[in-house]
From TrEMBL, chain A:
Protein name in UniProt: Uncharacterized protein
GO cellular component terms attached to this protein's record: cytosolic [4Fe-4S] assembly targeting complex
Gene Ontology biological process: iron-sulfur cluster assembly; protein maturation
Family: Belongs to the MIP18 family.
SUPFAM superfamilies: Fe-S cluster assembly (FSCA) domain-like (SSF117916)
Acidic residues composition bias: residue spans: 74-89
Organism domain of life: Eukaryota
InterPro entries membership: FSCA_dom_sf, MIP18
Disordered: annotated segments: 73-96
UniProtKB/TrEMBL annotation, chain B:
Function: Key component of the cytosolic iron-sulfur protein assembly (CIA) complex, a multiprotein complex that mediates the incorporation of iron-sulfur cluster into apoproteins specifically involved in DNA metabolism and genomic integrity. In the CIA complex, MMS19 acts as an adapter between early-acting CIA components and a subset of cellular target iron-sulfur proteins.
Keyword DNA repair: yes
GO CC terms: cytosolic [4Fe-4S] assembly targeting complex; nucleus
Organism: Naumovozyma dairenensis (strain ATCC 10597 / BCRC 20456 / CBS 421 / NBRC 0211 / NRRL Y-12639) (Saccharomyces dairenensis)
Residues covered by the MMS19 C-terminal domain: 587-987
Cellular compartments annotated: Nucleus
PANTHER family named among the record's database cross-references: DNA REPAIR/TRANSCRIPTION PROTEIN MET18/MMS19, MMS19 NUCLEOTIDE EXCISION REPAIR PROTEIN HOMOLOG
Assigned keywords, A-Z: DNA damage, DNA repair, Nucleus, Repeat
Pfam families for the chain: MMS19_C, MMS19_N
The encoding gene: NDAI0F02360
Protein name (database record): MMS19 nucleotide excision repair protein
Length: 226, 1037
């Protein structure tokens, strides 16, 4: 009876998808001027109180006051630059966040499935272990991203559409030096080669994106992205 | 002669009346009142008036007859009830009776009858005649609604005057007359009185069974009643008035029982939920009022029709709502109190009421009813089909009373209450059980809050012995196993178990103290060792609910245990049951989360944590642990400021202040750590704020001795200046500091003495102290006298700023002048940059200077001081900005402005936005990250509020933002992030046709930031870019 619709897929609760553990409160840490102790303190605070607590305000206030009152003020222009340099230096010492598999996963896992009101991550169509990122670190060299998707059933007619959705999402989200390859996971689809070819054919993808109606469907799939 | 005069004036009055009637009703009424008073003081007789009206009354013209009769009836209605004697009434009665066949006059005829009926000396014969006449010679269909209303009034008067009970032979005639006049009525006002009379008849008169069909017909014909009041409806009758009147009439008497249920069941097939709702509510009130004996024959068809509603149209709570402890909480409460119930709930309620009524009437009948339903639902337990609905139906029956409860429990619980290791089955079991626990609460009530006075002798609430007690151990065992026996991954089952535990706490008299302790123990253990969010919140809710009723148990079993787990040394691990490690942070977080607004818990936590702190602080390099403890302490105070009363404060102070002072002075992790010392100072602030006002003076003297005399903070630079200033900030502003001027001078001397080196932290302490003094104790003139703007040393400028802040916060009359001096300094080449930064201090929010509810005695902080401050300086700043050409000076103005904006609520800025916007745009190009951040922040707020203004400037704004998203010395992470957020916001605010113009520019411009080295920036860039891609794109539906 379920010729083309997989009616009862296994569903993972959206809270239980793999996620980056530590980085939930990034923007909280960013506010204000921070030195290392304060940053450390703020992290401690967040572990006991996740709202914008008064303690946090208090500490920021103190840091600010300590900064406004330069003990010795030789040249004003210099002192500003100094403090800003520090700020910048802090940014430099802080390691660069590289694009990793989790980041690719976060970009794609929340795309809606075209036929279920669920996300690709929840349906295990996109899986963290099936993503590869090959980055040599040189900003002038290409980065290779390979995603293997698992259709919910082997004759899933929407595999190409899902693939297209992922491609559009990633092409919009990643800089041009990223080469994206989307493949069906081995043995998960009846017409694997055909679909793979279609998904990675530039011309065909470009043609698909010129189809207003198709783009509308993709748009709807991307609405749920976080 | 007098008589003639009066007669003349009577004639005149009548002519006036006839002239005014239908033209000026008020005037006509006045005249008739006047005439009535003549009759009352016996100046004239009623007969005189009839004679005077005679010609008119017999006129051929309809209007003349009408008006004259109107005149007479109107006078009749205005004379006292006991004025006319029996024979006079009789004459007038017959006079009116003779007019009965004149339809044109009917309204006034009926009016007159209505007045006569109310008269003291009316005779029973006349009433009988009137009723007969109404019944036989009055045809309601001929008359307008207003006229048709009067017969109802007549009947109501007859009823009210008790004629029916005094003259039983009127009974049938009265009912027949009523049926006659009520049949075919359509006007809402008339229906309202008709329903009311119908109810009076069926509940109070005799022989009603003979008329029940007709009485029923003139009610049920209107069911379900819908009525939409017209605009400016004169009677103010609402749809629900009619509905309720009809419902009350239908349910008033059991004589309708045989008809009403069949008919209502018919109406249940309606598709409109509103009709269903009305039907269900009517059914409910009928069952309630008729009582058990009348539903013996009807419950089966009622059940059949309700079953459909309950099983198939079910809308009750789903698994997901059950799992959410918060919403679950509110729904269980609202079912009992909420007046707007869903049809599902009403249907369940009907089941409960049937059970209750049947049981009250005859136990056998109840059993018959119950067994029928039970047998029908029983297979559902075997096949696990519609289980939720089945359980809620059975639980509703159980909710009726003790006996039904026992019957239901004895029969139903064995069906499903069997411990199982199969997770899906266990899940069902827990969800089903929930309904029966609710049922217990419905029958026996929920645990009530024990007031603090009764705490010593907890009231033993005895609940009648019931069958659920027999299952208590088993239920506790199953819940306990579900919680502890399953892997941590079984979130659903474990959450359900905690929710049921919490529910059991609410069941009055069900659990013993030991069992409650056991539950608290379970929950405590779970919350300490489980990091799942759902479970955490379920546990938290559980602990909160239990502390509401059994604060002591929670304190002893949970809080104490958690506090005891805290190690003395942060490097120690907390082991739980030997195999789990509990992080310190988790314990502190739990304490913060669940103690809120509980007296004992907050106070004990504070005292305990202070004790712990004084041990921890002795261990070197425990700064971070001390910091955590202090943060928790601070938050406990901050979150519970209004809860902590004077007694608590005294208790806390006595228990901890010595220790705190000790570590503050002696222990390096506190004394030498800026954050920790500052937090501790704030804790001391809260204590000094909350101790009884009458002790403030003594305390001040004591503190002065400690800080000034013992530790000599005014003689040599000391870090203790900050705690001292915080303590002063908490004290009553009316206490006396005798040597305040000396203290002031000493601080200034200390600060300006170059030979005494001070750390910035010490500096801040003294400066804040100056601010507190200028705000609370120094006279304004004294402060102003001190202000010297020619001394441009950094120290002097700082001192002036802080003193100025104290004045600004109390809206001093000198603040504007002072601020102008500061603005003038912005153009100074040497100190301008520094002064621009000082401007932030004026508006910076210091926690100890915030307003607390119900506390006005501590600081002079005016509620709207920022508003005044902003309007004081804004125009001057803008003008100075415009008048200078020097770029660095311009920069100073912008910096000052944006630093102020950072701390000013955006609604205060709104009136200035038109002038402000150009400045904000220029600030975006200033070589200073903070200025950019502040300007972006203000721009974001303004974008949300002033769509048109932003649209006008979008052509300038977008290219600027696209520059700010690129990494640069002054484009810090925050600048980049805010710019991207603002760009995204523009798509929702600026009209599409404008956005289209720069859509491609933005998409291209955001290509580079996609490789930003910070993930959070990339993330925002992707979202922003996506928003632009989606512009004008219609998602396919």
């Amino acid at each position: 009876m379920s010729e083309f619709i997989n009616e009862n897929p296994d569903v993972i609760d959206s809270d239980e998808l793999p996620s980056r553990k530590e980085n939930i409160t990034g923007d909280l840490l960013l506010s204000g001027i921070s030195n290392e102790t304060t940053l450390q303190r703020k992290k401690l605070l967040l572990s006991i109180d996740n709202s914008k607590s008064k303690v946090l305000q208090n500490i920021e206030l103190l840091d600010k006051l300590l900064l406004i009152n330069p003990p010795e003020l030789t040249s004003d222009e210099e002192s500003i630059e100094e403090s800003d340099d520090e700020d910048d230096a802090y940014g430099n010492t802080d390691p660069k966040d590289v694009v990793d598999t989790q980041e690719i996963y976060d970009l794609t896992a929340h795309i809606s499935d075209p036929e279920h009101p669920l996300s690709l991550g929840q349906l295990s169509i996109v899986n963290l272990p099936d993503i590869e990122v090959h980055d040599c670190g040189d900003p002038n060299k290409m980065v290779e991203v390979i995603i293997r998707i698992t259709p919910t059933i082997t004759h899933c007619s929407l595999a190409t559409l899902i693939g297209l959705g992922i491609r559009v999402r990633l092409e919009r989200a990643l800089p041009p030096r990223f080469r994206i390859t989307i493949l069906l996971k081995k043995g998960t689809h009846n017409s694997e080669n055909q679909v793979n070819k279609q998904l990675n054919d530039k011309e065909r993808v470009a043609a698909a994106c010129e189809n207003e109606q198709l783009l509308g469907v993709v748009s709807k799939m991307l609405l749920t992205c976080k | 002669m007098a008589h003639d005069d009066i007669k003349q004036s009577v004639d005149a009055a009548i002519i006036m009346f006839l002239a005014n009637v239908n033209v000026n009703e008020q005037k006509a009424d006045q005249i008739s009142l006047q005439l009535a008073s003549y009759i009352q003081n016996k100046s004239i007789k009623l007969l005189d008036i009839i004679l005077a009206l005679k010609d008119e009354m017999t006129s051929d013209e309809d209007s003349k007859r009408q008006n004259s009769l109107h005149c007479l009836s109107s006078i009749l209605s205005n004379i006292p009830h006991d004025l006319l004697l029996r024979n006079e009434i009789s004459v007038i009665f017959n006079f009116y009776k003779s007019k009965f066949d004149d339809d044109i006059l009917m309204k006034f005829t009926l009016d007159a009858f209505n007045s006569l009926i109310a008269m003291k000396y009316i005779s029973i014969n006349e009433i009988t005649t009137l009723l007969t006449t109404l019944k036989e010679s009055y045809d309601p269909s001929k008359f307008l609604a207003a006229t048709r209303f009067i017969p109802f009034e007549i009947l109501q008067t007859i009823y009210i005057k008790d004629f029916i009970t005094k003259h039983p032979n009127l009974n049938d005639l009265f009912i027949e007359t009523f049926i006659h006049i009520a049949t075919g009525e359509k006007d809402p006002k008339n229906l309202l009185i008709s329903f009311k009379l119908n109810k009076l008849i069926t509940t109070n008169l005799k022989n009603v069974t003979n008329f029940k069909n007709k009485l029923f017909d003139i009610l049920f014909a209107y069911f379900p009643i819908t009525f939409k009041p017209p605009k400016n409806d004169p009677y103010k009758i609402s749809n629900s008035d009619l509905k309720l009147a009809l419902r009350s009439a239908l349910s008033s008497s059991s004589i309708f029982a045989s008809d009403v249920f069949d008919n209502l069941i018919d109406k249940m097939s309606a598709s409109s939920p509103i009709v269903k709702n009305d039907t269900l509510l009517t059914m409910k009130s009928c069952i309630e009022n008729y009582g058990g004996q009348y539903i013996i024959d009807s419950w089966l068809p009622i059940w059949t029709s309700l079953k459909f509603e309950l099983i198939h149209n079910s809308e009750g709570s789903t698994e997901s709502t059950m799992l959410n402890p918060i919403t679950n909480e509110s729904t269980t409460i609202s079912t009992t109190t909420n007046s707007i119930q869903t049809n599902y709930q009403i249907a369940l309620n009907i089941m409960k009421i049937i059970a209750n009524e049947l049981e009250k009437y005859n136990h056998e009948q109840f059993l018959k009813f119950f067994n029928h339903i039970f047998e029908e639902l029983k297979p559902n337990f075997t096949y696990e089909k519609d289980l939720k609905q089945s359980c809620s139906i059975l639980a509703s029956i159980g909710s009726a009373n003790l006996i039904t409860f026992n019957t239901v429990i004895t029969n139903t619980l064995p069906l499903f209450l069997q411990n199982t290791s199969e997770i899906p089955k266990l899940k069902l079991l827990l969800m089903n059980l929930s309904f029966f626990l609710d049922s217990y609460v419905n029958v026996f009530g929920s645990t009530t809050i024990i007031t603090t006075t009764a705490q010593d002798e907890p009231k033993i609430i005895t609940v009648p012995d019931n069958k659920l007690f027999e299952y208590k151990d088993e239920i506790l065992m199953i819940l306990g196993m579900a919680l502890t026996g399953n892997s941590k991954l079984e979130v659903t089952v474990r959450t359900l178990s905690i929710i049921q535990f919490t529910k059991m706490i609410k069941m009055v008299g069900y659990l013993t103290e030991d069992e409650i302790s056991l539950i608290v123990q379970y929950i405590t253990e779970t919350i300490l060792t489980d990091s799942n969010k759902n479970i955490y919140y379920a546990c938290l809710e559980g602990l909160k609910v239990i502390s509401e009723f059994y604060e002591n148990v929670v304190f002893e079993v949970s809080l104490k245990k958690m506090l005891d787990l805290l190690p003395n040394d942060a490097s120690e691990f907390i082991h739980w049951n030997n195999d789990e490690i509990v992080p310190i942070e988790r314990i502190l977080k739990i304490i913060l989360d669940f103690t809120t607004s509980r007296h004992i818990l907050v106070q004990e936590s504070i005292i305990y944590l202070c004790g712990k702190l004084s041990i921890v602080a002795k261990i070197g390099s425990s700064n971070d642990y001390c910091f955590l403890l202090l943060s928790t302490l601070y938050s406990l105070f901050e979150n519970n400021v209004s809860l902590i009363n004077e007694n608590d404060a005294i208790n806390i102070k006595n228990a901890v202040e010595n220790d705190l002072f000790n570590i503050m002075i002696n222990d390096r992790p506190i004394a030498e750590d800026d954050h920790n010392l500052s937090l501790l100072s704030n804790v001391l602030f809260f204590i000094s704020l909350k101790i009884p006002l009458k002790t403030h003076q003594d305390q001040l003297n004591r503190y002065n001795k400690i800080f000034i005399d013992d530790y000599k903070i005014l003689e040599k630079p000391s870090r203790l200046a900050l705690p001292y200033s915080k303590i002063l900030s908490g004290l009553d502003k009316n206490v006396q500091i005798s040597n305040v001027d000396e203290i002031f001078q000493a601080i200034v001397a200390l600060l300006t003495d170059e030979t005494k080196m001070k750390t910035t932290f010490e500096n801040i302490g003294y400066l804040e102290l100056l601010m507190i003094l200028s705000n609370k104790w120094l006279s304004e003139d004294k402060v102003i006298e001190f202000f010297k703007f020619d001394n441009l040393s950094i120290t002097n400028l700082e001192i002036l700023t802080w003193l100025g802040k104290g004045l600004v916060m109390k809206n001093s009359k000198y603040s504007k002048k002072t601020l102008e001096n500061f603005i003038a300094l912005l153009s100074n080449e040497d100190v301008g940059v520094f002064v621009s930064k000082l401007f932030e201090i004026f508006v910076i929010d210091i926690n100890s200077l915030q307003k607390f509810k119900n506390i006005t005695y501590n600081n002079n902080v005016k509620l709207l001081y920022k508003q005044k401050f902003f309007s004081d300086i804004f125009q001057t700043l803008v003008n100075s900005y415009k008048s200078t050409q020097e770029m660095t000076i311009k920069c100073n103005y912008l910096t000052a402005l944006s630093l102020i904006l950072k701390h000013t609520p955006s609604n205060l800025v709104e009136p200035f936005i038109e002038d402000l916007l150009p400045l904000l745009l220029q600030a975006l190009e200033m070589p200073n990250a903070e200025v950019r951040i502040s300007s972006l922040g203000t721009l974001k707020d303004s974008t949300e509020k002033f769509h048109q203004l932003i649209t006008d400037h979008v052509d300038i704004l977008v290219p600027m933002l696209l520059k700010l998203v690129l990494p640069d010395k002054f484009n810090t992470i925050n600048v980049r992030l805010l710019s991207l957020q603002l760009l995204e916001l523009l798509t929702t605010v600026v009209p599409l046709n404008y956005c289209e113009n720069f859509k491609q520019t933005v998409i291209d411009g955001l290509l580079l930031p996609l490789s930003d080295k910070k993930r959070i920036v990339r993330k925002q860039c992707i979202d922003t870019r996506q928003a632009y891609f989606e512009l004008g794109q219609i998602p396919f539906e």
